[in-house]
Amino acid sequence: MHSPENRVEGPEPISTGIAGLDHILVGGLPSERLYLVEGTPGAGKTTLALNFLLAGRDRGESGLYITLSETSNELNAAAASHGWSLDGIDLFELVEQEDFGNDNEQTLLHPSEVELGETVRGIIAQVQEANPSRVVLDSLSELRLLAQNPLRYRRQILALKHFFAKRNCTVLILDDRTAEPGDLQLHSIAHGVISLEHSASDFGSERRRLRVIKLRGLKYRGGYHDFTIERGGLRIYPRLVASEHHREFDSAPISTGLAELDALLGNGLTPGTNTLLSGPAGVGKTTTAVRCLLSSLERGDKAAYYLFDERISTLLSRCAALGMDLSPYIESGQLDLRQIDPAELSPGEFAGAVQSAVEEDDARMVVIDSLNAYLHAMPSDNFLVLQMHELLSYLSQQGIVSLMILGQHGVTGELRSDVDISYLADTVMLLRFFEAKGTVRKSMAVIKTRTSDHERTIREFSIDRAGIRIGQPLTAFEQILSGNPRYANGSTPLLDDN
Questions:
Q1: Which is nearest to 305 in space by CA: 320, 322, 290?
Q2: What residues contact 279, with CB distance under 8 A and at least 6 apart?
Q3: How far is Cα 260 from Cα 30, in angstroms, rounded to an integer?
Q4: Which among 390, 415, 392 has a CA at the least distance from the CA of 403?
Q5: Phi then psi dihedrals of residue 349, to 5 deg
Q6: pTM of the entire predicted model
Q7: If you average pLDDT over residues 458-462, what whole number do you get?
Q8: Superfamily, domain 13-100+109-239
Q9: CATH classification of 245-487, choosing from 3.40.50.300, 3.90.1150.10, 3.30.450.40, 3.90.650.10?
């Protein structure tokens, strides 16, 4: 990974235990500083904090978790749900259960005046005794309630900050955002601020995202980054920045496996370009993409296929019936065929999956089937275009052949798409139905190619048990681009139905 800018001289960065977060922070958190991790309950703050302490333990660093809200049993249970053991990490419950008895009630002084001072002194005493390298304080909402007013609250936090500054330890303070909206006191005190958000959509799973609001004196990757909570901790998908990824590749065109299709495209498919196959349902977009995919697999290349629309079993049986069996390539690991549920997938998670297939599995071809379903995983059309632009730019700089399928509404007449991304595509292929001699037939035409002088004709094609057959260029078409093409009797014969 390339960093957006070199780090300035300063404390050595330490790992948070989360690879994606370290990438966003350009190496990790500068050591011996105090950081604020804020988020509503359930956003993942405790999981992030445990990741942080466990990473320190693995490096031989001592860790201390001071909890004002949860019990040690609850923390151990949370760790066990991720398959972790907290052995070697000090857990300290600041308020023991017996402290809530009647004997401990204050009568002469306001309870908050005594309890706040006792709480802060308890934190300081525990840190002095354990002398940890990494500290987590969970959470500030209790201190805020005890302080009763912003001035006392800020003074106590400043006192804790100055105390920690002399201890040579890195501190995460968790906050569940119970303060008044717009209260940014802690933001100005902390060296860095990490904000976690989670929201529920009208349908599907909840979405989580993270943003680094502040990291004093250092460059980081800004903006929102999607993440999920899985067994083993947080998995963060840094926002894809195409300009940070580039590698040398051979740009010689590759064959689709069909000489007629190669001719239609100009000279086959060019690495580092993307092709959009657009047309109505049932016209043969997926079959054409699979034919190109199979040609790549037969050359020994690896590939990734992301299936949004139909079930994997349906696709495999349909392709096998057309003489394009993909099962051997899946079994050998050469083809990664994934069923994607757009209701359960965030855009960042999908981009992370594609990036992993390219950089870790060395896939040379990527197929997205289809963009219509992918659209429903996005908050809005604007985000779809921006995400797709960055993803396609990344694939281009990696030398990947990308195939995208876009279904259009309607069968004949005026066809409509959910979103127009044709301007992002390097090659656009139109697949259409047409009528001739009382029979419904299919045609394909390439209307745009940025890398070669493509054929500007229309060819009929058919799909049968032998796969795809493509005929000679037809010259007697009218109104093909209107979506309602008409074929008049010409000198070029149509494909034999037999």
A1: 290
A2: 285, 407, 408, 415, 430, 431, 432
A3: 59
A4: 392
A5: -65, -40
A6: 0.85
A7: 92
A8: P-loop containing nucleotide triphosphate hydrolases (3.40.50.300)
A9: 3.40.50.300
